[in-house]
Specification:
This protein is α/β, with parallel strands linked by helices. It folds into 2 domains: about 60 residues, Helicase, Ruva Protein, domain 3 (Orthogonal Bundle); about 190 residues, Vaccinia Virus protein VP39 (Rossmann fold, 3-Layer(aba) Sandwich), CATH 3.40.50. The strands form 2 sheets. It has a 7-stranded mixed β-sheet, sandwiched between helices. Strands 1-2 form a two-stranded antiparallel ribbon. A hairpin with a 2-residue loop joins strand 1 and strand 2. The relative contact order is 0.10. Keywords: Methyltransferase, S-adenosyl-L-methionine, Transferase. Its EC number is 2.1.1.297. It is an enzyme of class 2 (transferase). One of its GO terms (molecular function) is peptide chain release factor N(5)-glutamine methyltransferase activity.
Length: about 280
Amino acid sequence: MNKTLGELQKQAITELSAYSDSARLDVDLIICHVLSISRTALITQDRMVLEPEQLNQIQQLIEKRKQSYPVAYIIGSRHFWDLELKVTEDTLIPRPETELLVEMALSLFAEDQTTRVLDLGTGSGAVAIAIAKARPEWSIIACDNSPAALSVAKQNAETYQLENIKLINSDWFDDIPDQQKFDLLLSNPPYIESDDPHLKQGDVQHEPQAALSSGRDGLDDIRKLIANAKCFLHAHGWLWLEHGFDQAQNVKDIFTEHNYTNIKQHLDLFGHTRISGGQLG
């Protein structure tokens, strides 16, 4: 049976509402992806009759979403900052709270100041690429221990034709030369407790687990980063990290334990402390 775009949209939203809290957005993104149209066109072209092949493809992807498969992986992209980034199952899906790291980076140093930045565990390259695009005079290195994730980051950097970003295969600092010093280190590291049941639920269950969990209290990688970062910072350089909404005090204590100064923390839009930073004295 033929369906118009509007009829399919309404039906799909009703079906998906039992499985997703963002059914309307999910359906819109899937339809726009298959038909290569904008969300505005969903309104202006709602009487368009779909071809059987289009209808079948959309319905297949809606069924996939019903199985909690992330929309970002279904359509192969995610919006972050002012970017549209390719994502795959080899990368974490960039989230709005991670934009706090970009905001902090851009606020710390002047636009025309010679600034060296290292993004640790770059994944899709979201943070590094956002900064590199906004600050073409800065020098950015982004590292990850996953060659597959670095391949995605490379494609994203090439999309925006960035010449001030370099990608390195490194497990945290392992393959960063000791003589290299940076003004700013950034990371969205794994920080979920390894036995957290949420790791097996919703979208998260499909994301790379090594990029999500970090020991019994979720802080193993954060401890490693804070302990080792000082060797790679210029005097008065900064380290900023994303962490869980309930880890702020523990992260602050780790910064204090390692004698960082000017320790600061910032809230996300929900009022949770989600990033913390410290300065090399």
